[in-house]
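Suppose a colleague, Dr. K., hands you the sequence of a protein chain of 239 amino acids and asks what its three-dimensional shape might be. Before reaching for any lab equipment, you can write down a predicted structure in token form. Begin with the sequence itself:
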Amino acid sequence: MANRIHPTAVIGEGVELGEDNVIGPFTVVVGPARIGDGNWIGPHVTIGTPGEDRHRAHPAAWDEAPTGDPDHDGHGVVIGSRNRIREYVSVHQGTWRTTTMGSDGYYLRGSHIAHDCLVGDAVTIASNVVTGGHCHIWDGANLGMGAVLHQKVVVGPGAMVGMASAVRREVGAFTIAVGNPARVTGVNVVGLSRRGVDEETIEALGPWLKGKGSLPDNTLPGDLSTLVKAWDARPREEH
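The predicted structure, expressed as tokens, is then:
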């Protein structure tokens, strides 16, 4: 299906759009950027403006073709499919890697995805969440209203961060973190249950989720098993 782009929206050169996207009034998308299919992008959204670095160029990319950065690969933004990106969301382009947002996410009003962030699939980013640069938010994470992530923070798959929390360190897979500074307070039992994990398996996973044991050899639903094993085997710099 054709894209529906409001006449007041600005789509710069170097932007690649899939199909069936809705782009609302006064939204600005500048390249280089690649956006998949079936996204709902609301009014006053800004995607692809430069990362917040005093020393980087700030071209008027909505007026002229982007030149990219010959010294760094991954410059730009890539967004998957079927996301709901609400009004006043902002997404900055990468500086050394592509700022990436997966598919099936819900980005509420006024949330911000900073330069070089990697955001997985099926995330919920609530209103006024602010990420620092280089963060990695894994699949299925849920960040509550007004949460703030320090630069380079990693939030594990299925984790929940409470509203107004200040996250300065890693939040583990399927854990709950709240406060300033944010501290892990428990396991996201509801999130695991919704993924088809029974009580016995959740109990067996408990020590591993709390960082006090190895990953048990339990049977998990296929997609969840793949995700959990990927988290367990992630590169050392994300530990």
